Amino acid sequence: MRLTRCAMSNVPVLRAPRANLTGFDPKAFAAAAGTPKNDPWAQREAWRYSGPFTRWNRFKGSFPGLGIATVAFAVYCGYEYLFLKDDHHGHAEGGHGEEHH
């Protein structure tokens, strides 16, 4: 017997467990099946998770060239910051200087 609540009110109702019409008990089947001691497919499936197919290697191949591009961009930003100074910033007039007529 199990105790459930009625949908219309909050009164507990005592009900009998449902009858199993087929006679099949999935919990008993799972317990009886267990895990096999010698899985015949384990060796054939092992290649999927080793060598070039490991999770890290699959992730690493997702973004080809990202490392090289990041380093190249950082070098360019450093070069621009150190060597490419813009001499036109900071004029009080807001435009070109008086030497441009």
In words, what does this structure look like?
With 101 residues, the chain is mostly helical. The protein has a domain at 41-85. The protein has helices at 26-33, 42-45, 55-60, 66-83, and strands at 2-5, 12-15. Strands 1-2 form a two-stranded antiparallel ribbon. β1 (2-5) and β2 form a beta hairpin. The longest helix has 18 residues, at 66-83. The model has no long low-confidence stretch (mean pLDDT 78).
Reading side by side through the largest sheet, how are the strands ordered? 1-2
Number of helices: 4
Question: What's the helix-strand series?
Answer: EEHHHH
Helix proportion: 25-40%
Overall geometry:
elongated
> Using DSSP, what is the number of strands?
2
Broad structural category: mainly alpha
- Give the uncertain stretches in residue-range form: none
Report, as a whole number of angstroms, the end-to-end distance.
100 Å
Mean pLDDT: 78
Main sheet properties? 2 strands, antiparallel
Question: What is the strand content?
Answer: 5-15%
**Cα gyration radius (Å):** 36 Å
Offer a few descriptive terms.
101 residues, 4 helices, 2 strands, mainly alpha
Quick summary of this structure?
The protein is mainly α. The chain contains 4 helices and 2 strands, in the order ββαααα. Strands 1-2 form a two-stranded antiparallel ribbon.
Topology record:
Elements: E1 2-5, E2 12-15, H1 26-33, H2 42-45, H3 55-60, H4 66-83
Antiparallel strand pairs: 1-2
